[in-house]
Write a structure and sequence with these properties.
globular; 4 helices; alpha+beta; eight-stranded mixed beta sheet
């Protein structure tokens, strides 16, 4: 699925959403470093070692995944992915897992709904039956977005993340297509 669209946000800014490519690798690393410092709602972490370029490019190009970047002024300000984690498994091949995140400067401007629709469209093209993910239980903005997009909270992972000496729970969320 090829994505390459200019989107006008509620604030009037223009952003580009498109498939991530090999040449985006360094920009994505910069984004992840900044994103991990801005909030506690991610499983990225400050100072995380750089990912393996070849491994990530392979994922960007895989038929079993979709990686989208959100670009503003030639920088990555958001990313999303959806992957069929076990495409060859006879029982689990119809489930895809997603992740999504945006820098603070573009949160709350309507991008989440647009990107979630793209991820769901890809899942439908791949004949998926279920999309699932996890979200920090205190991330009320993301939870509202996911519920608005038709996801339900299916479970709770207690004490999933220890951040600054405080435990945080995660919800397991899913949508049946």
């Amino acid at each position: 699925m090829i994505i390459n669209e200019n989107i006008k946000l509620k604030c009037g800014r223009q952003v580009l959403i498109r498939n991530l490519k090999a040449e985006d690798f360094d920009m994505v690393q910069e984004y992840l470093d900044k994103f991990s410092c801005e909030n506690i709602f991610t499983n990225q972490y400050p100072g995380q070692p750089k990912r393996d370029r070849a491994d990530m490019v392979k994922k960007y190009e895989s038929e079993h995944s979709l990686f989208i970047g959100t670009f503003y002024q030639d920088k990555v300000v958001g990313s999303a992915s959806i992957q069929i984690l076990k495409p060859d498994h006879p029982w689990l091949c119809k489930t895809a897992e997603f992740g999504i995140g945006f820098l603070t400067e573009v949160q709350g401007l309507g991008l989440g709904s647009i990107i979630m629709k793209k991820l769901e469209d890809w899942a439908r093209l791949k004949d998926m039956v279920r999309i699932e993910g996890s979200v920090r239980a205190t991330n009320t903005k993301a939870i509202s977005l996911y519920i608005k997009c038709g996801f339900v909270i299916e479970g709770l992972r207690k004490k999933r993340a220890l951040i600054n000496d405080k435990w945080y729970d995660d919800y397991i969320i899913a949508k049946l297509l």
